[in-house]
Design goal:
The structure is a single chain. This protein is about 30% helix and about 30% strand. It has helices spanning about 15-30, 35-45, 100-105, 135-140, and strands at about 10, 50, 65-70, 75-85, 95, 115-120, 120-130. It has 4 helices and 7 strands. The radius of gyration is 14 Å and the shape is globular. The N and C termini lie far apart (about 40 Å). It has a 5-stranded mixed beta sheet with strand order 5-4-3-7-6. A two-stranded parallel sheet has the order 1-2. It has about 140 residues and is of the alpha/beta class. The protein has a single domain (about 10-140), classed as Chitinase A, domain 3 (Roll), CATH 3.10.50. Helix 1 (about 15-30) packs antiparallel against helix 2. Strand 3 (about 65-70) and strand 4 form a beta hairpin.
Length: about 140
């Protein structure tokens, strides 16, 4: 499970807290076995370097970041925003943190290549650019 290439991931203390709360709430209300996507997200949170929100590097994908990635197999580029489940809207390029690719990109930096299992196999993406990161936008 999880990313095949284990680059260091960095998550803000605020995102870590909110994501842990999200997982706990979904587990409590599901009344059934936890889904693979929640297990993967919990695994990623468990290995992350937790950093104060105001110390997050500007080249890291955080919640609500907008970024450009390249599919290493097809060469296609995509621009997405990493969204909370209630804000996810694939037609507007907002992917949920609970989607395998969303979980796979959280905390990675520009230049990292990420391999992540998806229903059709393993996708390999390179993070090309952060177009917007809330933490960088609020630093002075």
């Amino acid at each position: 499970m999880g990313a095949k290439k284990k680059n260091e991931i960095i998550i803000s203390n605020l995102d870590h807290h909110r994501l842990t709360e999200l997982i706990d709430n979904l587990e409590a209300t599901s009344g059934q076995e936890i889904s693979a996507s929640l297990l993967q997200l919990r695994e990623e949170l468990g290995r992350a370097k937790i950093t104060r929100t105001d110390k997050i590097p500007a080249n890291v994908i955080t919640m609500n970041s907008r970024f450009r990635i390249r599919d290493m197999d097809s060469g296609q580029e995509f621009t997405y925003t990493l969204a909370w489940p209630e804000d996810a809207d694939i037609e507007n390029n907002k992917i949920s943190i609970l989607a395998p690719v969303g979980t796979g990109l959280l905390g990675y930096r520009v230049g990292n290549t990420v391999e992540w299992p998806v229903p059709a196999g393993v996708r390999k993406f390179k993070i090309e650019e952060i177009l917007y990161q809330p933490e960088a936008n609020h630093q002075t």
